[in-house]
């Protein structure tokens, strides 16, 4: 998806590693994936959203789908600008990913694949797929790390996002290792520009602005170091530290989370390991446990994982009043809330985020906006507008 130079073992390229990079810890991450061609900022964001949307079924399904309107909203396109979306999808399908790594048995593996094997737009839905070989690499957390979309949205520069993506892979190692300037220019998408063959220009226009934005915007802090041959700069690497002020969803190796009762209940419900640990890190055990109790109190639901996802995101609470004591207006409100909850539960994480942002952009009143931020789709001050919003998305609502 993204331009990535991930961790190599000492056996692959030991001569290029120095100091602590020669230690065995580096061998935990043995792959290198990088992408040829130039990707715009929107294309980078698009590739990340598509990957996150497909991640849980990346190796079990060949085709993935997301509604085009949601996709556009998630990456900042005008939701009616299908021409730009088509152009970006075409660019991803025409861009080549290449890897050179050790496989599970320690054998060298080289491979090449287009970023997307196909993409279609039909009846408002984007369907797309990855080659099986690339999908297996993207799904392996030792090879490839998902980018947090909350952080991605903050970037305004494609070069800064590219630098972040390539450095974030190495946050546990503390350094990217040495890259030749030729490879670095390729990762930044400026390999075909003679202007950036001059290090002074590359440093002033690409490296310094990108480093400044990464350090200001993201959950890591990077610092470049250069290596020279004579007076010429030949290689660059980036030292990486976590940014304690902007650390978001820093999921550990799972030893702690996997030993908790809440984690076990999530797994029993059908939540995958990665998502269970993410929820526990993001929300805390007490909050997740409360939402598990909420879902259990709803009786049999078709999609308990989807329902729990919505409950965590929207802060659903158990209704305090029994149906028999409700007024007709309250019963109507409860019925509508139930339909909205089911709709929210049926949406993917990227779709739900886009839905919230789309509705929030319509709210003009400050108090109503604050109420929506605190209560989400359960916001009483926005109840009527929320109902109309979901009617637009699903005309079958009654």
From TrEMBL:
InterPro entries: Initiator_Rep_WH1, WH-like_DNA-bd_sf, WH_DNA-bd_sf
One annotated GO molecular function: DNA-directed DNA polymerase activity
GO annotation, biological process: DNA replication initiation
SUPFAM superfamilies associated with the record: Winged helix' DNA-binding domain
Residues of the Initiator Rep protein WH1 domain: 26-167
Pfam families named among the record's database cross-references: Rep3_C (PF21205), Rep3_N (PF01051)
Domain of life according to the entry: Bacteria
Similarity section: Belongs to the initiator RepB protein family.
Name of this protein: Initiator Rep protein WH1 domain-containing protein
């Amino acid at each position: 998806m993204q331009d990535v130079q991930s961790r190599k073992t000492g056996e692959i390229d030991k001569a290029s590693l120095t100091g602590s990079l020669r230690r065995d810890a580096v061998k935990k991450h043995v792959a290198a994936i990088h992408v040829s061609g130039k990707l715009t900022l929107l294309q980078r964001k698009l590739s990340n959203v598509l990957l996150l949307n497909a991640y849980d079924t990346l190796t079990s399904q060949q085709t993935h789908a997301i509604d085009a309107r949601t996709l556009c909203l998630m990456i900042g396109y005008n939701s009616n600008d299908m021409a730009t979306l088509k152009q970006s999808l075409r660019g991803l399908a025409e861009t080549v990913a290449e890897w050179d790594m050790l496989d599970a048995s320690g054998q060298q593996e080289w491979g090449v694949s287009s970023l997307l094997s196909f993409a279609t737009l039909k009846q408002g839905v984007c369907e797309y797929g990855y080659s099986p070989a690339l999908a297996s690499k993207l799904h392996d957390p030792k090879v490839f790390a998902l980018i947090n979309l909350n952080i991605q949205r903050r970037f305004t520069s494609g070069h800064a996002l590219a630098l972040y993506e390539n450095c974030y892979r190495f946050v546990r190692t503390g350094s990217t290792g040495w890259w030749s300037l030729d490879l670095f220019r390729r990762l930044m998408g400026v390999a075909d520009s003679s202007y950036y063959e001059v290090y002074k220009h590359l440093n002033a226009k690409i490296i310094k602005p990108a480093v400044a934005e990464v350090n200001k915007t993201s959950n890591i802090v990077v610092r470049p170091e250069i290596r020279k041959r004579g007076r010429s700069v030949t290689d660059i690497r980036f030292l990486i530290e976590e940014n304690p002020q902007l650390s978001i969803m820093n999921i550990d190796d799972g030893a702690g989370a996997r030993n908790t009762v809440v984690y076990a209940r999530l797994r029993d419900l059908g939540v995958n390991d990665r998502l269970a640990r993410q929820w526990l890190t993001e929300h805390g055990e007490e909050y997740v446990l409360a939402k598990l109790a909420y879902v259990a109190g709803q009786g049999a639901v078709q999609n308990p994982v989807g329902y729990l996802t919505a409950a965590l995101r929207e802060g659903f609470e158990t209704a305090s009043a029994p149906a028999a004591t409700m007024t007709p207006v309250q019963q109507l409100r409860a019925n509508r809330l139930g339909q909205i909850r089911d709709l929210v539960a049926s949406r993917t994480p990227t779709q739900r985020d886009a839905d919230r942002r789309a509705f929030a952009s319509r709210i003009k009143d400050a108090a109503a906006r604050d109420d929506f931020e605190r209560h989400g789709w359960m916001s009483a001050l926005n109840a009527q507008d929320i109902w109309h919003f979901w009617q637009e998305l699903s005309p079958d609502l009654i």
